[in-house]
Amino acid sequence: MFRLNVLATICLFCFANLATAQPASDIASLREQAVASMKRAATYFKTRVATHGGYVYHYDLALDRRWGEGEATRDQIWVQPPGTPAVGLAYLAAFDATGDAFYLSCVQEVGEALVYGQLKSGGWTNSIDFNPQSKAVADYRRGKGGGKNNSSLDDGQSQTAIQFLVRADAALNFKHAEIHDAAQTSLDALLAAQFPCGGFPQVWTGPVAPRPPKAANYPSYDWRTEGRIKEYWTLYTLNDNLAVYVTEALLAADNAYRGSPYEDPRYLEAVERLGDFLILSQMPQPQPAWAQQYNYDMQPVWARRFEPAAICGHESQAVVGLLMKIYSVTGEDKYLQPIPTALAYLKRSTLADGSLARYYELKSNRPLYMQRNGDQYSLTYDDTQLPDHYSWKTRSNVDALQKAFLSVKQRFGKPDPVPSPAQLTTQVRSIIDSLDAEGRWISTADSTRLVGQAKFAPGEKYLASQVFNDNLETLARFIRVSQGK
């Protein structure tokens, strides 16, 4: 979910000249079709696909089998995107575009499902189980379960739930008491999970202990065999765009409550402290970029068996984009200062095929990989026999980030560019035409590994929440811009 406005701006600049003028009558007709298609698709998803008001990742066409991270029962919904709160955000986009109360009823159902599964620690884990007898039940805040109380920021789990709930709270005019309470509780818990230096752990069970701020540095011990911490999820974490998701949640809260009785300066203050952490956690030369996670001495450390202490291409690009985002909110030049050296480093670290390695060895900067033998992993510089369950290389966005950086100050204080209706017409027509008579967007399996590793044979048909979310949001965007919103 790396959807930062700086990159969206670049995309619009690149495609602006491809748009052709469209007669107003054609745009109006297409808008009517978009409104109707969006309503038909959302009605099917709400009435046929949802269980307990929530969603998973993938479904077979008969809706007999469902997958989140693994196969799910009908009593389980997924919090991690593209599951329940991500679907809820798509409903909110449809409501914002049309004002149709039907979508607000969809939003309320999603919100109530998330309220049920909020943990006592204030956040969420990756799924919610409505069967009280299930072993997957967690320690839900409203007393409907036991189990673990681990609020997670991994893969945008709690952050996306928070982002949805605060926006839902505002859309419902702060009048749905349980949704409002869950949103406020989750924000208080998120703020309590921020370390004084501005970083966040991957998981929290309560307020974090204070730690003295330190600048990033290289470990003096043999990081290959020493310094591993069993509960790595309690450390400073940037893995899987954690900081990007946190920022989106905090900015959504600031926007949702600004001008209301619930306005709170802490949300923007937390964004600034997170930006300060990103500055602090930039490694010194010869690798002025970022790691996936750090110990409390601000040294890169291991996480899972296949996630070594290293400099990370994917996370470093995400941090560069996020620093520009934080600058666009604050106007503070300090958030731009780490970027030139980071981009220069990433540029010279680009692989022969134009990609970036997920991991670069500390100090030597050699691309670092893993080989797998059963349950055992071993470090290697060889990329010819990589385990297929993980992304060992990542696409380079360095050129796009460089362009965004060169123009970020000129864009400060200006609204983000929006596409014209003409720029969206081809995509919108394709989305409308691909909707079947029942209101489904049907996907066909290929050899691509799906989120959650659903086991579809090549050629098999299925439904995907991500496709629903993307299509609904695109239709909603077209409806808005075609009305001059």
What does this structure look like?
It is a single chain. The chain has 485 residues and is of the alpha+beta class. The chain has a five-stranded antiparallel sheet with strand order 3-2-1-17-16. Helices cover 42% and strands 10% of the residues. The N terminus is likely disordered. It is built from 13 helices and 17 strands. The radius of gyration is 22 Å and the shape is globular.
Rounded radius of gyration (Å): 22 Å
State the major sheet: 5 strands, antiparallel
Work out the helicity level: 40-55%
Overall body shape: globular
Name the descriptors.
485 residues; alpha+beta; 13 helices; 10% strand; globular; disordered N terminus
Please give a quick description of this structure.
The protein is of the alpha+beta class and 485 residues long. It contains 13 helices and 17 strands. The strands form seven sheets. It has a five-stranded antiparallel beta sheet. The chain has a two-stranded antiparallel ribbon with strand order 4-5. Strands 6-7 form a two-stranded antiparallel sheet.
List the helices and strands and how they pair.
Elements: H1 5-15, H2 24-49, E1 58-60, E2 66-68, E3 70-72, E4 76-78, H3 84-98, H4 101-117, E5 127-129, E6 151-152, H5 157-171, H6 177-192, E7 203-204, E8 236-237, H7 242-257, H8 266-280, E9 293-294, E10 311-312, H9 313-330, H10 339-348, E11 356-357, E12 359-360, E13 369-373, E14 376-380, E15 393-394, H11 398-411, H12 421-433, E16 442-444, E17 461-464, H13 465-482
Antiparallel strand pairs: 1-2, 1-17, 2-3, 4-5, 6-7, 8-9, 10-12, 11-15, 13-14, 16-17
